[in-house]
Amino acid sequence: MKCSVFTCVVVTLVVVTGPSDPLAATATGVVFHDENRNGKRDAGESGVPDVRVSNQRDVVITDDKGRYRIPVDDDTTIFVVKPRGWMTPVDPEFKLPRFYYTHKPAGSPATRYDGVSPTGTLPNSVDFPLHRQAEPDTFRMIMFGDPQARNETELEYMARDVINELVGFDADFGITLGDIVFDDLAIFDQHNRTVALIGIPWYNVIGNHDLNFDAPSDKLSDETFERVFGPNYYSFDHGPVHFVVLDDVLWRGVDENKEPRGYVGEFGEQQLQWLESDLRHVPENHLLVLTMHIPMTQCRDREALYRLMEKRPYSLSFSAHTHTQEHVFLREQDGWRGPEPHHHVINVTVCGSWWQGAPDERGIPHATMRDGAPNGYSIVTFDGQKASIDFKAASQPAASQMNIYAPYTVESSQASDTEILVNVFAGSERSKVEMRLGPDGSWAPMQQVTRMDPYKLEIQQAEQSEHPPRGRKMHEPSPTSHMWSAKLPAEPPVGLTLIQVRTTDMFGRTYADWRPIHIK
């Protein structure tokens, strides 16, 4: 197997010196201040004390000279937990943080897509370079769900629909919440080059479409992901926030005919034990942010995860996977025992509904998600222990936050029986939504309902018609909880006027929209 991108990059960025006994069961090394940022420890570059280093099981702390010792076996990824005010090297081509060293002497087993090349014997010293960077209490990041391109054509859709408007955006880093690609792992590199155009470091979560489907077990299903991105679960600090990247996709292997058995949502005992060790070193007054692919509510061992985090007063979590946008608040009836509900965000997806649907004037599918919300991404702003989340529809103004559904013409006598529906894309149970008719009407509250989005139903009907629109047919629509309903007022003024809707989200931001209606 030829030298992989992952292995070559690690050799240049993580300093290793000299061969050691192949039977060694302990890795040693130094976390050091890489003052000239050349990726190797030069004379006079000091070790960094009190930095966490992990092998995905244990978490150890560097001593006053930056030294650490940690157990390894023949399939171990060692990584440094990036501390606040420091940064690891970032690959210049892909903008991927390089914070790990893979010890896999024999390399990955053969699969359709290359895994890790043999790394040989464990070096005498596995050193991790860090350089200083400013990390204030307030910062922004970008959150992607499911870019999920299956080929270069769909990578182009992503580039023109999403990446183009983010180039040069003022954010400290980004995270993709899994399903980075759609089964074809050979396009990982081109995907990463595309996202790298934004110009910021980018972390990645593993998704069910990022696995080696010919792997016989879950343990071997992430070999290609590991070659490209590193460990399947890890953590890092940025500002006053502790970020944890989790792998909650359990691959069930292949059957006797080598047919895939599929996957389930599960964290697994080893990962949860690692998380418990990781959190011991995180002060409880810090905000904890968990990222994963499958919503935690769909994981078989979710309550074991809840036990680890529910006593912490500040926590937030993100997933994707469902191709919907939703704010979920976990309570006692959900198995959560914390004093306050836990906020779990099911993030908008970059590909929307898998890049399906009729193409627009640019040739890009409209890709409306299953709940009627447009494809896009989130911008998350952190301020100490708090976070606010902005829904951003791809290629649309930031103020585009809802769709209003109403007939254009209504008989005055039928007004009080006419329902107005509003899909507030990032709405939640903590949103306030109001409607009024005309510039002088009174604002009246709208009621949150669970409905199918009318636009999605129209698309479905059109696709089932004798003359369907161009483009791939979309998946079945799903009910959305971010829908609000109200009736028109009785005896409205006759004539052409506006239905006006305003919404205030859980973070105190207000958005407004309107549409004309003709009362006869």
Please, could you describe this protein's structure?
This protein is of the alpha+beta class and about 525 residues long. The chain folds into three domains: about 5-130, Immunoglobulins (Immunoglobulin-like); about 140-395, Metallo-dependent phosphatases (Purple Acid Phosphatase, chain A, domain 2), CATH 3.60.21; about 400-520, Immunoglobulin-like, CATH 2.60.40.10. It has seven helices and 31 strands. The strands form seven sheets. It has a six-stranded mixed beta sheet, with no helix packed on it. Strands 1, 2, 5, 7 and 9 form a five-stranded mixed beta sheet that branches. Strand 3 (about 50-55) and strand 4 (about 60) form a beta hairpin.
Secondary-structure map:
Layout: H1 5-13, E1 15-17, E2 26-33, E3 52-54, E4 59-61, E5 67-71, E6 76-80, E7 86-87, E8 100-103, E9 125-132, E10 138-144, H2 152-166, E11 173-176, H3 188-196, E12 202-204, H4 223-229, E13 234-238, E14 241-245, E15 249-251, E16 263-265, H5 269-279, E17 287-291, H6 302-309, E18 315-319, E19 326-330, E20 342-346, E21 376-383, E22 386-393, E23 402-405, E24 409-410, E25 419-424, E26 432-437, E27 444-445, E28 447-451, H7 454-463, E29 480-487, E30 495-504, E31 510-519
Parallel strand pairs: 2-9, 10-11, 11-12, 14-17, 17-18, 18-20, 24-31
Antiparallel strand pairs: 1-9, 2-5, 3-4, 3-6, 6-8, 7-9, 10-21, 13-14, 15-16, 19-20, 21-22, 23-25, 25-29, 26-27, 26-30, 28-29, 30-31
Helix pairs in contact: 2-3
